[in-house]
């Protein structure tokens, strides 16, 4: 029995509300159970200097957690004067994931920055950030297309992410914090809407796993990604 009472292959409830901020070119609030992340997209007319005169665009990301996103207050990283290693790793992951679904030549020499701010954390914040970040990116590129600034859609496919792991000896989909903190194996799966893999992060947390178990977790992830892509489609209309 999972702590939440969910079936082994059952996702938490997913909702994506768009247009939640006034100024950002694209924004959404994604809720995956009790994990809530605000995702915004900002269009910058210039690409990074290393892409000058290449005709290629860029998507990058920044990630952060509000001080009371968790059970106890976490000091703001700005107050500490530097980002933690986990933050840097996650925001690089978000950027890599979203670029995998992007035609950078169609975007042109401009950059879109995706900001993912965790309002409330209950496991799977990086996965929710990627899934919601894609929606914010989609809304921003829609504005570029509507204004005629770009003429070809730069988004090749949906991008979404879900966690799957082995909890209490059973394969489960979409781990919440209670499961994630006790999981024997924990994995994050990032895929396109067509089912192609972008990145898999799997690690044993006190126990090992077999190739067959990894394949079973992959099957769970494919099912979860399909649900997330459907939620993305509903959100953007």
Order of helices and strands: EEEEHHHEHEEHEEH
User: What share of the residues does DSSP label as strand, in percent?
Assistant: 25-35%
Indicate the percent of residues in helices: 25-40%
The count of β-strands is 9
Strand order of the largest sheet: 1-2-3-5-4
Q: Pairing-aware structural class of the strands and helices?
A: alpha+beta
Q: What is the residue-averaged pLDDT?
A: 96
Major sheet details? 5 strands, mixed
Shape by Cα distribution: globular
Number of helices: 6
Question: How far is the N terminus from the C terminus?
Answer: 36 Å
Low-confidence stretches: none
Integer-rounded radius of gyration: 18 Å
Summarize the structure.
This is Ribonuclease PH. This protein is of the alpha+beta class. It is built from six helices and nine strands; from the N terminus they run ββββαααβαββαββα.
Can you walk me through this structure?
By secondary structure, the protein is α+β, with helices and mostly antiparallel strands. 32% of the residues lie in helices and 29% in strands. It contains six helices and nine strands. The strands form two sheets. It has a five-stranded mixed beta sheet. Strands 7-6-8-9 form a four-stranded antiparallel beta sheet, with helices on both faces. The longest helix has 26 residues, at 211-236. The chain is globular, with a radius of gyration of 18 Å. This is Ribonuclease PH. Its EC number is 2.7.7.56. It catalyses: tRNA(n+1) + phosphate = tRNA(n) + a ribonucleoside 5'-diphosphate. Keywords: Nucleotidyltransferase, RNA-binding, rRNA processing, Transferase, tRNA processing, tRNA-binding. Phosphate binds at residues 86, 124-126.
